[in-house]
Design brief:
With about 300 residues, the chain is α/β, with parallel strands linked by helices. It has eleven helices and ten strands. The protein folds into two domains: about 190 residues, 3-Layer(aba) Sandwich (Rossmann fold), CATH 3.40.50.300; about 55 residues, no CATH class. α3 packs across α4 and α3 packs parallel to α5. The strands form two sheets. It has a six-stranded mixed β-sheet with strand order 6-7-8-3-9-10, with helices on both faces. Helix content is about 45%, strand content about 20%.
Length: about 300
């Protein structure tokens, strides 16, 4: 499975006084099994981009190829596409509407034409994969907490058995504990299901801790595309477009500027800790060696 975007442009309200170019010559290839972080400030084009990937929006020009076929073609089955490329919206309330969570998760598979029994089996599996405790399955989705609603919305998409899962700001409005729980669950799904995941986020720490590839958007174009380490080397340029880097990145650069041979590419607290301890251990070893030589010189 791959998704290829070839010179994709999108214009809102074309040929009106409100015309606005939202995507500008986007060239992108998403490989099977990748865990991608898509970042950018408000208005950068990231939400417009993800709505193209499952056919909610049709490109003004250019091609979007899913498994080799252009999804912009008039005869392309968009219903089938949305079963393969699942999108979880930023606000789960926009996706939850049934009387119970379980009925909500069953809705998608039934809409695909599956029997009630098959839909229920998928719902059981999806709810467990999303990490929602069974005690909440038969409650109204609107009685759940913010984090539980997000798990229910994720389960509703997982029940469709997508090959690609797109999560639009899945931690927005959650406290730190709830945010970590959701992201840990998403990372577990990526490992266990070998699913392609695109995480849309404004949090550089979240992206640094979980994804293997980062795409940074600005004014409808791709500004950077690479590993988090490669992208965060451009932290000054990121600041210039209203973003930045994880706090630990600034710390490591400051230590390096002061002469400490730390790894400035460290982007997580764990990586920074290991690098600093390694430097301190080397320094301690040198001090011990110097003291040993001094002691021997005195004896001689």
């Amino acid at each position: 499975m791959s998704i290829i975007l070839d010179k994709v442009n999108y214009v809102y309200s074309q040929k009106t006084a409100y015309e606005m170019q939202a995507l500008n010559n986007i060239n992108l290839k998403i490989q099977d099994g990748e865990f991608i972080g898509l970042v950018g400030h408000t208005g950068s084009g990231k939400s417009t981009l993800i709505q193209h990937l499952n056919g909610l929006l049709r490109a003004t020009s250019g091609g979007i190829y899913y498994n080799g076929r252009d999804i912009c073609e008039e005869d392309y089955d968009r219903k089938e596409l949305r079963g393969k490329v699942g999108l979880v919206f930023q606000y789960p309330e926009h996706q939850l509407f049934e009387s119970t969570v379980f009925a909500d998760v069953c809705f998608g598979p039934k809409n695909l034409g599956l029997s009630s029994k098959e839909a229920e089996l998928r719902a059981f599996t999806a709810l467990r994969s999303a990490g929602l405790e069974e005690e909440y399955w038969y409650r109204s989705p609107f009685e759940l907490s913010g984090g539980q609603k997000r798990r229910a919305a994720i389960a509703g998409v997982l029940a469709m058995k997508p090959e690609v899962l797109i999560l639009d700001e899945p931690t927005a409005g959650l406290d730190p504990k709830g945010r970590d729980e959701i992201l840990d669950q998403v990372a577990a799904m990526h490992r266990e299901l070998n699913m392609t995941i695109i995480l849309v986020s404004h949090s550089m720490e979240d992206v640094a801790n979980y994804v293997s590839r980062m795409i940074v958007m600005n004014q409808g174009s791709i500004l950077f595309d690479g590993t988090p380490q490669e992208v965060f080397r451009h932290y000054r340029e990121l600041e210039a477009v209203g973003l930045g880097a994880p706090q630990v990145t600034y710390l490591m650069h400051q230590l390096q500027e002061r002469g400490l041979p730390v790894n400035a590419d460290a982007i997580t607290v764990e990586e920074a800790k290991d690098s600093i301890l390694q430097v301190l251990a080397g320094k301690q070893q040198r001090i011990s060696q110097e003291n040993f030589l001094k002691d021997n010189e005195k004896k001689l």
